[in-house]
Structure formats: C-alpha cells, structure tokens
Specification:
This protein has 107 residues and is an all-alpha fold. The chain has three helices and no strands. Helix 1 packs across helix 2, helix 1 packs across helix 3 and helix 2 crosses helix 3.
Length: 107
C-alpha cells in the first residue's frame, strides 16, 4: 500500500508553487474587481495544491528531465503550472459553454 504521509518540504513547495502560479495568472490578465481577483487566486491555489504532483511528474517526463530534478523542484514546478493553467482552462470552458450552451428565452 502506498505511503499516505506528507512530507513538510513537499507540501511547502506545493503551496509556494500554487501561490506563484496564481499570482502570475493575476498579473498576466488583470482582474476587473477584487472579488474576481480573490476567486481566481483561490481557484489557482486549490488547483495547484490538488494537481501539483501529477502535473509535475507529467512535466518531468514530457520534458525529459527525469532524474535531473529533485522531488521538491518537481512539485514546485508542477503546482505552479497547474495553478497558472487552472484559470485559463476554466475560462475556455466558460466561453465554450456561453457559445454553444442552450439559450432560453426570457419569460
């Protein structure tokens, strides 16, 4: 059975990467309001924490860096990429839903 314990250094790297990715997404596309900024930051932070590990492993394999990065570096970069991409993926889904979603006539 897999070990379910958490290494403090990996969790810190995951949080730092997720926060950095969320911050970059806010700087790259400035939000219209404080509420939008908070929503985007929290979305990026939570996606970076949740998906940082798998994205980091995918990046290492995809870029051919296996064995060259430490687990902390892998987690940091994966969390940053997952966090940065989270809002862009959600934004694309919203645009697709608005374009092709069912349009109802007002009563």
């Amino acid at each position: 059975m897999a070990e379910l314990g958490h290494d403090g250094g990996l969790m810190a790297a995951k949080l730092a990467g997720a926060a950095a990715g969320a911050w970059v997404s806010l700087v790259y596309l400035v939000p219209k309001s404080g509420r939008e900024a908070a929503s985007r930051f929290l979305t990026g932070l939570s996606c970076g924490v949740m998906f940082g590990g798998p994205v980091g492993l995918w990046l290492v394999e995809r870029l051919g860096l296996s064995g060259q990065l430490s687990p902390v570096e892998t987690m940091l970069s994966g969390a940053a990429v997952a966090s940065l991409c989270a809002w862009w993926v959600l934004g694309a889904l919203v645009r697709i839903a608005n374009r092709y979603g069912a349009k109802s006539d007002p009563p």
